[in-house]
Request: fold
Amino acid sequence: MTQSQNNSYDASSIQVLEGLEAVRRRPGMYVGGTDSKALHHLIYEVVDNSIDEALAGACDRIEVIIHPDQSVTVEDNGRGIPVDIHPQTGKPALEVVMTTLHAGGKFGGGGYKVSGGLHGVGVSAVNALSEWCEVVVKRDGFIYRQRYKQGRPVTPVEKIGKAPKGQTGTRTTFKFDPTIFKGNLSFKYETLVQRFREMAFVTRGVTIHFVDERTDREMTFYFEGGIKSFVRYLNRNRQPLHPVVHAEKTIEDITIEFALQYTDAFTESVYAFANTINTVDGGTHLTGMRSAITRTLNDYARKAGLLKDSDPNFSGDDTREGLTAIVSVKHPDPQFESQTKVKLMNPEVQTYTAQVVSETFGRFLEENPSAAKAIIKKCLTSARARMAARKARDLVIRKSALESLTLPGKLADCSSRDATKTELYIVEGESAGGSAKQGRDRHFQAVLPLRGKILNTERARLDKILSNKEIKALISALGTGIGEDFNIQNLRYGRVIIMTDADVDGSHIRTLLLTFFFRYMLPLIEEGHLYIAQPPLYRIAVKNKVYYAYTEADRERILKEIGNGAKVNIQRYKGLGEMNPQQLWETTMDPQNRTLLQVTIEDAAEADRVFSMLMGSEVPPRRRFIQTHAREVRNLDI
Reply:
């Protein structure tokens, strides 16, 4: 370090960020970033406050409106944020809540027994990250209002009128700040619908009315059955083995609620919530439920003579096959792993959840022997398949660099070993595979051709999946292992790119691959490694110029630019094999020109349901889906 650099570090170098400036400087610490996911998080934070009012028994209706200018209004009929003077600050409580971090009614237990918002950060962070915000409160017979710009008050808390008799509540309207959330970002109707559906499931008796004024769409959610209804919803496209098992019990001020049902599926669909927040990484409540289910089934199977003395106990994997379950806890003092609340950490929750699940599920098995027998039979089949899968897995999974399997013979690997820069193209067919191998940049692009359609992994157990040649080649090439043994650290390529023909068969192969990755390599999607290549639909040649159109709109635009006078040759690409290596490189593989779609999961529960519907064994839901959406199809090859 030079002398001048050293001297520049003095008291004047220390910055103190006033008010909400810290949120604007580091939005990632408060809402997880500045991307589309963080943008939606703004709405969730405001709606969570209304849900907290519902949990306190003070609110039963929440309105959410997206206006044409992308501003958002959230209104509830709760108690209304207090507006009287806050004793410590001398400011109105509403202003303190909206402009001060770590301020709210959720610390001392006086305002809320249970709440999703813990840190008093949520709504003030939303205010800080908004171009403007306005809060209207109905309380004590009057209507109050305050306005803000980039988190700072621009009006005092004003009394603007009388509230209708008996009416209370809070209405928050905000417009996200485009200087922070840059790019062409907008709120997605489907993403919000899924989130509000979840909220309504886990907050029984609350109506959430959602209106999108941009597209004149709206939806209302109300579920009297709560998480029992949630389990039925997830299992709409599966064949249940028994009625939903459900219980709700409060121990030491902690309310534990769970619902479970076994189906004919081969995968597990389990979701955990803490104070209505979807804890996507689980936590002690999920661990407690899973361990209790396994222990209860082992105890019952031994007692009923369905497991012989020589048989080993069922493992957690055996008892989770075909299980759909929801666990929801309401805790007065939840401890989360981070501000984004993805994992619950309270150790006592594991004990209480296990107790409630063991008691209820054990009683259900005793009182319903035919259902119990069907569940145990499924576990036994799963156990046998697991043993077979273990043998198959040993032939497929790369244990370490030293004892790794030879890579599949048809894999054309790249020379670079830097996983942050390498790419694997999974290509449909030997012909397209040949073009891709010749056209690629061999330094960082690898190609794995697949022959035909891979196995539908939604309808097969792991042992059968691991005996499939194409899937074995895919697992070997990626190097990560599969299922419980999956390790993202061993991934050999930074990008895994699915490249299939732009026709019906190509779409089917792509869906089969997505199903496999979703069910058995989910972290690959969650951590942003999976992509879909976008090959062109048309080659348009005029004189000595060539244009490529990736969509119908592209084609129309290009033809319009060319004009009517010229002689135009239009080729519709039915498959990748129709392109020579140079064309495939220029249009689909060259990082300078190509278009890649990154595969993401906005809502795991909804993705789970859709994969079950499209790829599962139940035909009627799939037929209904096709009939509903048939008119939307374009470019169907006949």
Notes: The chain has three domains: 21-221, 227-393, 410-535+597-601. Residues 384 and 600 are 34 Å apart (CA to CA). The domain at 21-221 is CATH 3.30.565.10 (Heat Shock Protein 90). The chain has a mean pLDDT of 84.
